[in-house]
Fold this sequence. Notes:
Elements: E1 2-7, H1 12-24, E2 28-31, H2 39-51, E3 57-62, H3 66-72, E4 80-82, H4 86-94, E5 100-104, H5 110-122, H6 132-144
Parallel strand pairs: 1-2, 1-3, 3-5, 4-5
Amino acid sequence: MKLAFGCDPNATALKHLLITEASALGHEIIDYPSDDPIYANVAIRVAQDVAAGLADRGILLCGTGIGVSIAANKVAGAYCACISDAYQAQRAARSNDANLVSMGAQVVGPETAKLLLREYLDGVFDPAGRSAPKVDRIRDYEASRA
């Protein structure tokens, strides 16, 4: 899977740790610069590239994970879930078909972040599953506003 990683300066160390983890799992990495303190800039860029199909999924990091998630979700076709536990990581992919996740470097520790990454990447959305109509409703609403 091709993964796009982006963060603000608060989360550079965690981004590098997660890139190492994802690489060890066999994923291809796109690493976006992390020197811009305006987290929305990198979040929007990563979200645009994921929505355009240049990456399969995106991982965004900032201090809380919230800001990058809000910014990414402004991009049409980007569906970013802010995660901080394993259940959220699993459900982001399996129930919500999230093509991006965000985490807070000041919220989750390094080992938890690696676990969340693995849980998210292992998740596969079932388009015939019980969550599909919920996800379809979100996409239909987005399309009606285009």
